[in-house]
Amino acid sequence: MNFKNLKQQYTHPRRRQAGFTFPEVFLSMVVLTAMLMLVGAMVPLMVRSVRYASDFNQAQSLAMHKVAQLQEAGYENIEGIRLNQNALDIIDGTNNAPQDNVNGDKSATLEFTVTDNVWRYFPGGTTSSGAQDTGNPTRPRGYIFISPYTPSALTSGGVTRYNLIQATVVVQWWGWGSRNQMHNYSTTALLSRTPVE
User: Fold this and answer.
1) Is 0.85 surpassed by the pTM of this model?
2) pLDDT band at 119 (very low <50, low <70, confident <90, very high)
3) Cβ neighbours of residue 29 closer than 8 Å, sequence gap 6 or more
C-alpha cells in the first residue's frame, strides 16, 4: 500500500466544481435589470436636454444677430418703416409695422419671423417641404420691443428727448414631445444717439 498517495488524498480537500449557484444568478439578474431600467429612464431625459440646449443656442444666435443688425442700422433708423427699407430688411414688411420711435419717444413692437425665417431653426416649425408651417399656432417667432431708455431723458424747452433707445430682442419657440411648452430667449441692447445731446 502506498501511504504517500493515501496521505495526499486525505490532506487536500476536494475542489468545488466550476459554476454559479441559483442565488448568485438570480441576484446578478436583478442587478442587471435594475441598471437597464435606470438607463432606459435616463435616455429620454438626456435627449430632451440635448434638444433644449440646441434650441437655446439657435435662439441665442438669432437674437444676437438681430441686435448686431440694429446696432449697425443706428439710432436714426429705429422706426418700423426704416427698418424694412433701404436694404436693411431687419423686420417683417407688414402693413401694420409701427412707424414711431424715430426720436426714441415712443414704444414699438416689431416682428422678424418672416424676414429671418425663424421657423427653419427649430424642429416642428416647417412642413415636410421646408416651408413655413403657417397653420401651426405654436410656430417659432421673433420680436423686437423698442422703448426709450428713461434714464437718458433730457428736457430742453419743454421737449423731452432720449439719448438712448432700449431694444429687447425675443425669440420664442416651443418644446417638443408630450411636454410641449413655450421657451423664450431675450437680450437687450442700448442704442445711442450720435452725437449725444
Assistant:
1) no
2) confident
3) none
